[in-house]
Amino acid sequence: MTARMRALLLLLAVTVCASDAQTNNSSVNKQQQQQRSTWEEPIKFSTKIKDSCTMVVSGAGDYTRLRVSCKGLSQGQTPGRSYYCDFQGKPSLCRAYSLNPRHYFTQMMWELRKLSHACQGPKIYRPHMCKKYADEAQMTFLTSWPKTPAPKPSKPVQETRKQVVPAQTKPVTTPKLVKLQLGKVPQPRKTTPKPVKTTTEQPDSSASQLASEYCWQSLHGFCTYIISWFQN
């Protein structure tokens, strides 16, 4: 191999290395620019009741930290309330976050602005672009100010047992039974049927005999009367 060929190969190798270095530097610069835009440019939004809030992202070792600071509207001479809360996580474990970290926090902001109090929402936020990743890759609630006291478990109130006095009920008035003395019980009067005067004459024996032969016993008197009437 001649010296001229060696010089050409060396020049080619230097050119390739320089191209790779330039590509890597461009990628690093782009990533740093994205991180800088995320770190330095806060994301602003308003809550459901018009609290003005700001999201500022910073680094804390291997973790990414987010502070949400809000200030409410002033009412007359009374200044609006101020509060903030911190979140921490490792969203860099999510590949989509590494490509567009600002959009990650923008999706988180969409959830925060639905609240009346930006620091009283879920303890873990899962933006849609990294929803499938573990809790370690999500932003988890860390602390807040002013701290809202956690509700204490309610103790059962020991009520003094009072003697239950049954309500006085009025006695039911029952109809009084009339006592009847023996010997003085009024008895119904016996009515004797008055004899019915018949103007007809007693039937003769022949009419009675015919009635007993041709009529039922219950109609014996009637048949006897008819037969005697025809005979007369």
Radius of gyration: 58 Å
Shape: elongated
Helix content: 25-40%
Number of strands: 6
Describe this structure in words.
It contains 5 helices and 6 strands. The chain is an alpha+beta fold and 232 residues long. Strands 1-2-3-4-6-5 form a 6-stranded antiparallel beta sheet. Helix 4 packs across helix 5. The longest helix is centred in the first third of the chain and has 38 residues, at 3-40. 15% of the residues are buried. Residues 196-201 have low confidence and may be disordered.
Task: Walk me through the topology.
Elements (H helix, E strand, L loop, with lengths): L2 H38 L2 E4 L5 E9 L2 E9 L10 E8 L5 H5 L1 H12 L11 E2 L13 E7 L59 H10 L5 H12 L1
Antiparallel strand pairs: 1-2, 2-3, 3-4, 4-6, 5-6
Helix pairs in contact: 4-5
Explain briefly what this protein structure is.
By secondary structure, the protein is α+β, with helices and mostly antiparallel strands.
For the structure shown, list the relevant keywords:
232 residues, alpha+beta, 6-stranded antiparallel β-sheet, 33% helix
